[in-house]
Amino acid sequence: MSPPLPPLASLKNKTILQVVPEMATGGVERTTLEVASAIVEAGGRALVFSAGGRLVLELDAIGAQHVFGEANSKSPWTVFVSNVSKLAQIIEQEKVDLVHARSRAPGWSAFLAARRTKTPFVTTYHGIYNAKSGLKRWYNSVMARGDLVIANSGYTRDHVLAEHKINPDKVEVIYRGVDIEAFDPHVVSNKRREELASQWGVPLACPRPRAILPARLTAWKGQKVMLEALGHLRRSGIEIDCLMVGDPQGRDAYRAELSQDIHRYGLEGQVHLVGHCNDMPAAFSLADFAVTPSTEPEAFGRTAAEAQAMGLPVIASNLGGARETVEDGVTGFLSPAGDGKALADCMGRLVALSPKEKVKMGAAGAARVRARFTTRALQFATVSLYQRLLEPEK
């Protein structure tokens, strides 16, 4: 167990404006909410400029203030003219002390408004923005133009430095946070587990080992690789139940392809496409281990960290931020990306472990998350970064 962090640095009489496309759902939005909560706790005012969404009510509940605007627009006029004027007006009227941008299009608006008003400017590089042209590289570069730049993993920091050639002293790693109070197996009641299993039409206690793949249904998240791996295992006499938890987000054709693969590999009744889930701690509690088989690098790998917080061993692709969240052979296994046979071998190794070895691996993962990847650590590091920029003499 890691020692508790000291109290948050003081932001008394400071107003921080975060700029994000919308406050709907997702990791960027959740981090915005967590940081807004920390700003309020530290004695500051937390403003969020976005196009709105379901999390606005949660902003209100923690004492933050939402300002509606077309932050999700990619129209050049909106990005480079109208939103710049609107944000500059907000900065001056609300006496904003620092602007924090979390996405590229509204990031340009925030950057230009901050420079116009001579306001300190921070960015968070939440993802790996690929650039296939000079224009795209310039567009991405706004996320490296902060007075300080937050990278959500060491992998992301390396990408920022390689892509934008900025001063390494400007880039600080602050890992995405896991809410360890929510993602704690001891707080998930049997009632929550039973309700979710009933909703999904799966047995509460599965006679086979059960894996969970928590990711929206899109090709690069690796669902097809997982199905190929399960097919390999089935042919070798090993059957594993699998919960694929994630919204297709309109990708109905891709979901249909997954259903076809389930039939082709003979996995009916073994693989369950259950859709979106509002209770991921309960979802993880229905599984014995988690798999995150992405075929492209994750900037951090939040779901792998959440699964480990719940005491599950995790098998992740050996690329990107997963190399930091999963310790190979200790908290789970790293498998070559896109290789169904290799993934099958990793799952075979995992299910062959003794119950004691599985518990040890899960406990190691939970300890790693609590030591390095908590929401509280993210809040503490972000507030400290704000204070250093606002009061450098301290």
Structure notes:
Helix 8 links the parallel strand 8 and strand 9. The radius of gyration is 22 Å and the shape is globular. About 45% of the residues lie in helices and about 15% in strands. Helix 11 crosses helix 14. By secondary structure, it is an alpha/beta fold. The chain contains 15 helices and 13 strands. It folds into two domains: about 180 residues, Glycogen Phosphorylase B (Rossmann fold), CATH 3.40.50; about 190 residues, 3-Layer(aba) Sandwich (Rossmann fold), CATH 3.40.50.2000. It has a seven-stranded parallel β-sheet with strand order 3-2-1-4-5-6-7, sandwiched between helices. Strands 10-9-8-11-12-13 form a six-stranded parallel β-sheet, with helices on both faces.
Distance between the termini: 30 Å
Structural class: alpha/beta
Q: What is the highest CATH level, the class of the largest domain? A: Alpha Beta
Please state how the strands of the largest beta sheet are arranged side by side. 3-2-1-4-5-6-7
> Which homologous superfamily in CATH is the superfamily of the largest domain?
Glycogen Phosphorylase B
CATH topology of the largest domain: Rossmann fold
Order of helices and strands: EHEHEHEHEHEHEHEHEHEHEHEHEHHH
Our count of domains comes out at 2
Radius of gyration, whole Å = 22 Å
Low-confidence stretches: none
- Identify the overall geometry: globular
Biggest sheet architecture: 7 strands, parallel
Strand content: 5-15%
Helical content class: 40-55%
Number of strands: 13
Mean pLDDT: 94
